[in-house]
Write the structure tokens for this entry.
Amino acid sequence: MGENMLFPDYIFESSWEVCNKVGGIYTVLSTRAKTLQDKMPDHIIFIGPDCWKEKTCPFFIEDSTLFSDWRERLAEEKLFLRIGRWNIPGTPIAILVDFEPFYEKKNEIYARLWELYQVDSLHAYGDYDEASMFSYAAALVVENFYNAFLTDQDKVLYHGNEWMTGLGLLYIQHKLPQIATVFTTHATSIGRSIAGNNKPLYDYLFAYNGDQMAGELNMQSKHSIEKQTAKNVDCFTTVSDITAKECVELLNKEVDVVMPNGFEDNFVPKGAKFTNKRRNARKKLLHMANCLMGTQLDDDTLIISTSGRYEFRNKGVDVYIEAMNRLLRDRDLKKNVLAFIEVPGWVGEPRKDLVDRMSSGKTFDTPLEVPLISHWLHNMSHDNVLGMLKFLDMWNRKEDKVKLIFLPCYLTGDDGVLNDTYYDLVLGNDLCIYPSYYEPWGYTPLEAIAFKVPCITTDLAGFGLWAKKENASEIEKGVKVIHRTDYNYSEVADSIKDTVAEFSQFTPQQIQKARNSAGTLSKKALWSNFIQYYYKAYHVALTKAAARNH
């Protein structure tokens, strides 16, 4: 941190994913928390939605002694909080707020938002109301805490993540101008929508009008709150250069600071433990595959996977399948390939026939029915992955050198078939492939290289762009970064195919070099290196707030 940089005495940070594991933002916040908690113990306070009510939240440890008088006083004013600690490294203070009582004031809140900031809430549907009421309640928590415990002498900062926290940020900006505000969009709502609706995002980015597209895609309210928050906060940030371009074109607002997502590697086992876990993961994955397909794949098999949310095009699941199909006919492929798709679908139950085979202790030479999938789905006939495999006539035949298996569930250790967590299985891979079309940052490739698994990604992912800047764009350097555009799907599939075939010819020394390079690159993305970008954002916001309050 620079000599003259301003730093907050208190940070309040809110997100729908505080103590609420939904997606990548949970990883961003929960891995960064320890770095901030170490720097300013208990002066970083996270605010999340109380989605759990009477049920036990596994990510939250309630502590009724924390700010108990204040909490009881607020309850009399119908602001109901649960206060405790987030069950993550650093165990920072977390406040979960019940936002439901504010629904009855919804129209009044939206009207005021229109008067002050011209935010269009008329077209709200789905999760807009829920997010807005949470955001409003979170802002009331900050306001009440400030009035009860802090003074004008304290440098206080409120940081909101994603459009869901926009309403609260604008409330604080208006009601408590002495508090500095930071807004981070992890992906613009309209950009994600354009990409998800199969429209070309990048070639036409300069020509898209965000407001017009919001109307066309029925996204007016989310887009409106995101755009006005970006324009009015003290410091507007995003997670990668590629999303920064999106913000300029679709929100008409340049970002003040790009803050790439770091991580902590405390989940990566070391030494002999790592070697054992890798061996066990490979054994388990091969055993499951052999039982499913009636094969005898051995440890020389190349194990690869893709994973993430089930966004068939955005995450590049389609191009991954296409690449595996082309690899079937590639003469340069020197090993058998076992390819997994680990994305949660509409999962039914674990396959009893597969579980029975796995626990029988026997070997099998005939495949089970539908030897492509580990769990039954509710919509077997309408699933994108199974549909594409059927269309390409990929059935994991005996003679196929490439076998592809769909694991359609969250790997949390209790799926009923493998019963191991994602982190326990991913380190068994030889390669991970994430050919994203739309990926503001990309945690999955970062996690893969932390486990010394070389990976393939694209330059449409924030992580891919960062890796290129670090001179890692070939597989022997740990990460292969493929150039991807709106229209070069076929070239991307070929590039993945060629890279896997090339990797299958590597000597043990070349493989070790690629694995070590992957591990070394991941160290550059630790929070200890990336937190400086947050400090810069805090400085920008506090400087603006100080100027406003003089």
Remarks:
- The first helix runs from residue 24 to 39.
- The chain has a mean pLDDT of 96.
